[in-house]
Amino acid sequence: MRCSRALLLAAFLVACDRRVAPASSSTTAAASGSVAPAAASASPSPCGDLPCTQHDSASEAFLEAAGADPAVLAIGEAHAQKGSTVPSAAKRFTEDILPALAGRASDLLVELMMPPTGCNAATSEVKKKQAPATTQQAPTNQNEYMIMGDRARTLGIVPDLLRPTCGDMDVVRDAGDDAIDASLRLIAHLCGTQAGKLVDRDSRSDADRAKAVIVYSGMLHNDLTPPPDRAAWSYAPALDAKVGGKLVSIDLVVPEFIADDATWKSLPWVSSYDRAKLGSRVTLIKAADRSYVLVFAETRP
């Protein structure tokens, strides 16, 4: 990335943990510039009232969702939790999907913060406030984001981190019991503003004008139609307006991570996904206009 490995490892991953802040109902965005839609490899599978298709590969499903000319691919993942024993969404995206976006995407912005060195004290305090959420996540999450950035660079896609100011860190530090909310708002703000600048730069570049900007975050932040109580946590509506409706939201879900609890059951697509019938292949569910859920195939023993 535009920083050393040591700096990246020193950065902290602000929580979008679904157990602290339930994920919203729409899917994460992802799309690469000039992507030709891929044909589904099988007839649509029964997914209740929601259309879905099944695919032999995650990249095939992803490109179908991305469409022909997205300006922004808003990708949201369900973060791997501590104790996970199957590959995470981030690892699968890096290995199975990202290579298909070479030449189609200009930048990859990941939800990993890199505060300035001048506010180390505030950063340390914020990390403490985030501990109830971050300690529930798999300890490999940060490293997998670093690997994702390294892989993107080899593919000609420029990776970067979220870059808050010291003032931003002060706001989160001083938020008290609202620190989680302040952090989620900050992530949405930084994703939207930094991605917006990349879109503007691409529009002035002959080499990148037709390419997409990838934003990779948690499922809370890429929701095109977030509920009112979580609207401030999503960058997608404002960024979609900026790019004239050319943002595609794609959520990446590992089937083994879907739990039998109220949070997961609150997502409208969950009742449409029958793992016993669909789990052997990649399933792409269309949750709404330009909003998709990509459920990876089960990990074989």
Task: Explain the overall architecture.
The chain is an alpha/beta fold. The protein has one domain. The chain is built from 10 helices and 8 strands. It has an 8-stranded mixed β-sheet, sandwiched between helices. Strand 7 (282-288) and strand 8 (291-295) form a beta hairpin. Residues 1-44 have low confidence and may be disordered.
Can you tag this structure with a few keywords?
single chain, 301 residues, alpha/beta, eight-stranded mixed beta sheet, 10 helices, 17% strand, globular, disordered N terminus
Write the layout of secondary structure elements.
Blueprint: H1 5-10, E1 52-55, H2 58-66, E2 72-77, H3 89-97, E3 105-113, H4 120-134, H5 141-154, E4 158-162, H6 166-173, H7 179-203, E5 212-218, H8 236-242, E6 247-253, H9 262-265, H10 275-278, E7 282-288, E8 291-295
Parallel strand pairs: 2-5, 2-6, 3-4, 3-5, 6-8
Antiparallel strand pairs: 1-7, 7-8
Helix pairs in contact: 2-3, 3-5, 4-6, 6-7, 7-8
Stretches where pLDDT is under 50 for at least 5 consecutive residues are 1-44
- Beta strand count: 8
What strand order characterises the main sheet?
Answer: 1-7-8-6-2-5-3-4
List the domain count as a whole number. Answer: 1
Q: CA-to-CA gap between the ends?
A: 34 Å
Structural category: alpha/beta
N-to-C SSE string, H for helix and E for strand: HEHEHEHHEHHEHEHHEE
**SS strand fraction:** 15-25%
Rg over CA atoms, rounded to whole Å, is 18 Å
Q: For the report, how would you describe the main beta sheet?
A: 8 strands, mixed
Helix content: 25-40%
- Inertia-based shape: globular
